[in-house]
Amino acid sequence: MYLQMTLLDEVKKKLHPCDDLTTRTFPELNIIILYFDHLVGTQELEQDVLQPLSKISESEVMDVLNRFQYQEAKDTKTIIKGILAGNAAIFYKRKNIYLINLYTPKTRDISAAQIETSIVGPREAFVESIEMNLSCIRRRIQSEKLKVLNLQVGYVTNTKMNVIYIEGITPDHHISDVREKINSIEVDGLHDLNMLMEYIDENPFSLFPQYLTTERPDVVASKLLEGKVVGLFDGSPYAFCAPTTFWEHFQSPDDYNQRWILGTASRFLRYIALFITLTFTALYVSITMFHYEMIPNDLLLSLIESRAKVPFQPIYEALLMEFTIELLREAGARLPTKIGQTIGIVGGIVIGTAAVQAGFTSNILIVIVAISAMASYVVPHIIMSASIRLARFGLIFLAGILGNFGLIAGVTLIVIQISKLTSLHSSYVIPTAPFSDWKDTFIRAPLKMIKNKPSQTKEK
Questions:
Q1: Which of residues 246, 277, 308 is at a domain's end?
Q2: Residue 259 phi, psi dihedral angles, 5° rounding
Q3: Strand partners for 380
């Protein structure tokens, strides 16, 4: 009795004050139960534990407990950790403490993807429950080779996360690399997957994402089959895949859910959109400030007429409009969906028209900025899209100072930066060589031709 009451008192003392800690007592059975009612399945606890215990004698207690997969606890730390993980701690016969897992997370149901929408493919997306997300993956890959490693992050939060891979397909050095990076994190707590990725980035000051994030179980399943390592983070509706490449951020699940010719055409369109959104506005600034002789005479006359009332240099004019577009984009993202869409459309039309009439900008620049903005939406992955938009401001600045030379120098610096990046110590641009990887990088070849793993995920 002394041991049991000592442990019970220590647990209550360490959890005090926790008004949401529930205590249930069965004096005739020498049983005390501790649990958090918002973590355990209340209905399951009532029907399978509390009601049976209220109807039996002490000799039948173990018959009830044996219905569950329980864990015996011997110390305060294990008991508290179990209770916080959604277990009911049962103190029985003065010396035995059993942890019964009744964890039932309160989370939303699986719904359609909000960011990575699909036209012809599956529509379900991850939610904030790591258990539900893992079940979505296992439903797609029903193999004993699918392995899951349980890890915890944060000294205080003890947040659960899973590292997932397929045995025999994923290289061992990638698995150990991810596990070591996560285990080396020393922080009180992390609350989102993106925070975790910032800690394990190999190039933390880079503008470009070194891990592929997705909210779609079908994308995760396909990446696992390619030999990638996948990470799930409890409380985040996203997963990360590693290693990744620059080109993977321009691939969409719909590429594989339609005819290969259409998938290839879509990829070419995205690469063209990348060039447009990155350089179109900067090229306008460069030509109008330094290289107007490159403009055809008829178009030059229209440009002169359009800019006749504009008091700003093209660089300031372009930066002003790009900044305005980003303000509208941010406002639309922070407001409720329907209002945000209205703000984006109406705000763009009203501000664009008013800016031209007031002489702040020219008609031609409005068209160029609008095309650049639309092209940025073609990039399927939102983090890469944001990185490209930010890089565009740097190119505009260089083009306004050095003309075409500055634009070319800026693009060259971006290419050098991307070429130097690594993801799990693998090159960020590795599919450019060997050429055999091109069939699922720059084009989407027929599925029968895409049989081998990418060279990035082959064993060294």
A1: 246
A2: -55, 145
A3: none
Preceding peptide of 171 cis, ω within 30°: no
Q: What is the DSSP letter of 165?
A: E
Domain that holds residue 309: 260-420
With 90 as the cut, is the pLDDT of residue 411 above it?
yes
How many domains does the chain contain in total? 3
Transcribe 21-72 into DSSP letters.
EEEEEEGGGTEEEEEETTTB-HHHHIIIIIHHHTTS-GGGHHHHHTTS-EEE
Distance (Å, whole) CA 374 – CA 367: 11
Contact by Cβ (8 Å): 211, 157? no
Q: What is the pLDDT of residue 284?
A: 92
Percent of the chain with pLDDT over 90: 33
Bridge partner list, 427: 422
Domain check: are 345 and 416 in the same one?
A: yes
Residue 356 has a CB neighbour count (10 Å cut-off) of: 18
Q: Is residue 302 part of a domain?
A: yes
Q: What is the CA radius of gyration of the chain?
A: 29
Residue 118 is encoded by which pair of tokens? 């699909």
Q: What separation in angstroms does the CA of 333 have from each of 73, 193, 199, 214, 228? A: 48, 20, 26, 19, 31
Q: Quote the CA–CA distance of 255 and 389 in Å, as a whole number.
A: 24
Q: Which residue has the higher pLDDT, 436 or 262?
A: 262
Which of 153, 156, 151 has its CA nearest to residue 230?
151
Assess if residue 116 is contained within a domain.
Answer: no
- Same domain? For 233 and 270 the reply is no
Crossing angle, helix 404-420 and helix 260-290, to 10 degrees?
140
Task: Find out whether 42 and 57 touch, Cβ atoms under 8 Å.
Answer: no
Distance of CA 210 to CAs 138, 204, 244, 398, Å? 26, 9, 7, 26
State which of 246, 271, 299 marks the end of a domain: 246
Measure CA 150 to chain center.
Answer: 19
Q: 62-66, 295-299, 399-403, 454-458: lowest mean pLDDT where?
A: 454-458
Q: Is the residue at 459 inside a domain?
A: no
Using the structure block, give the residue that is written with the tokens 């996203």.
Answer: 238
| The pLDDT of residue 330 is above 70 | yes
Percent of the chain clearing pLDDT 70 (strictly above): 89
Tokens of 66: 């044996």
Given a cut of 50, whether residue 1 has pLDDT beyond it is no
Mean pLDDT of 354-378: 86
